[in-house]
Amino acid sequence: MPFPTRLVLLVICWLPIAALADGSLSAEREQELETLLYQDCGSCHGMTLRGGLGPALPKSRMNAYSREGLAALILNGVAGTAMPGWAGLLSQQEARWLADHLQNDNPLDE
Ligand code: HEC
């Protein structure tokens, strides 16, 4: 087959892989992360994110961070406080998903 055709096929085959690498998690994993957010993070931050042992995580406050900054905070935790780092349990992409959720799909819209 001529070279340009091969190139087009290569790009078409590569696109879904690029999409996967670039931030789309499976719906199932997103569901798991949502459960983790309200149950595990919620055990300190409150099941509705209104705070408890940890501070409330309202949308306005979450948007004071960049998405990358928030993801890094989730992965690394806050040294010297009860906020643990989640790098052992979450990938960078998953932490970014949680950060995005806190900034845009946050039930605590204050
Ligand atoms: C064991 C309790 C605990 C758990 C579990 C926990 N956190 Fe925290 N988190 C804290 C504490 C305490 C702080 C406040 C740290 C400080 O004083 O700066 C905090 C701070 C934060 C902040 C910064 C808040 C701000 O106002 O700047 C974010 C964002 C955050 N946590 C997100 C999460 C997420 C997402 C999870 C789950 C993946 C999680 N936390 C799980 C205790 C916890």
UniProtKB/TrEMBL annotation:
InterPro entries listed in its UniProt record: Cyt_c-like_dom, Cyt_c-like_dom_sf
Pfam families given in the database record: Cytochrome_CBB3
Superkingdom in the source lineage: Bacteria
Keyword Cell division: no
Annotated source species: Halomonas fontilapidosi
GO terms, molecular function: electron transfer activity; heme binding; metal ion binding
Keyword Metal-binding: yes
Domain Cytochrome c: 18-106
Protein name per Swiss-Prot or TrEMBL: Cytochrome c55X
Keywords associated with the record: Heme, Iron, Metal-binding
